[in-house]
Amino acid sequence: MSDLSIGRLSALSGVKVPTIRYYESIGMLDAPPRSPGGQRRYGPDHLERLRFIRHGRDLGFGLDDLRALQDLSARPDQSCDEADRIARRQLLDVERRIAGLEAVRAELLRMVERCSHGVVDECRVIQTLSDHALCAHDHAGGHTASKAG
Amino acid sequence: MSDLSIGRLSALSGVKVPTIRYYESIGMLDAPPRSPGGQRRYGPDHLERLRFIRHGRDLGFGLDDLRALQDLSARPDQSCDEADRIARRQLLDVERRIAGLEAVRAELLRMVERCSHGVVDECRVIQTLSDHALCAHDHAGGHTASKAG
DNA sequence: CCTAATTCCTCTAGTCGCTATAGGTTCAAG
DNA sequence: CTTGAACCTATAGCGACTAGAGGAATTAGG
Questions:
Q1: Which residues from A are below 8 Å from B66, CB to CB?
Q2: A97: domain range?
Q3: Which protein residue lies nearest to nucleotide C9, measured between its Cα and the C1' atom?
Q4: Looking at residues A72-80, what average pLDDT do you find?
């Protein structure tokens, strides 16, 4: 039973259809059997794996990490030190990003609070960007991440 | 005076050499005059503009926003409402990302704290990834941003 | 003045994790 | 049996860079 179309798999997993095909193309997800007409037909294993990936992505893990974690989960008798190591690294990364963003947030708050809504020449927003010396904190660093879609 | 090489401009601005050329290629930075041999020679205006961009990038603004803010700062008599709007939008975005990352952090903490360092089969890290129902909070959403380089 | 090391040049392709589009085929409901 | 939705492949694009090849210019030292 099952035999899910890619659309139903997408709905059940929360992963978009083109993303599922993308995962297959980069080897994150096994290629499923096809219908006589050539369409993908998935089973429950695929759904489980996709949910694993989705959950991991939500937690900010990269696909490489998730591949490693998936490989580990396929060998249940091994020590989980490696999984623990990956998760701790991710935790540190997230905390580093939070710290960076907190500094940025403080600076942005200062900027907009001091904007007197006059003309550009006196605008704190522009002034602050032009002159880092106006900043209260050091907010430079690798915390800047692209906005999520 | 000045007449900075791209390398010195890079050192003074904190923006890497290839990035400066990239900015020129996408119109973020004016093309400077060239030496007789064809190398770029920058003046203080370029340095100022690059620092503006760098500071804005550190605060998480996209290049499009910075282009708009730069255009505004070139017209000092205009109202700064637009600059304020852009900064507030950025602030909200940063706060949304912090909130998402906080939820993720809580979940990762739960994962690694409960890891008993046994075998994979009993590993909380793997278990949690496999089953979202084990999560305390809802951490799904658009907070996931790529790691900064 | 000459050489050698460093910096600079252009161009192309790769990163990450998708997303979008074009142009065509198959499937499932009525 | 028809229709329209969902599917297929393939390619290109996003943001903001980064890396590498292969060569030319500059600069510091002798």
A1: 129
A2: 81-134
A3: B39
A4: 86
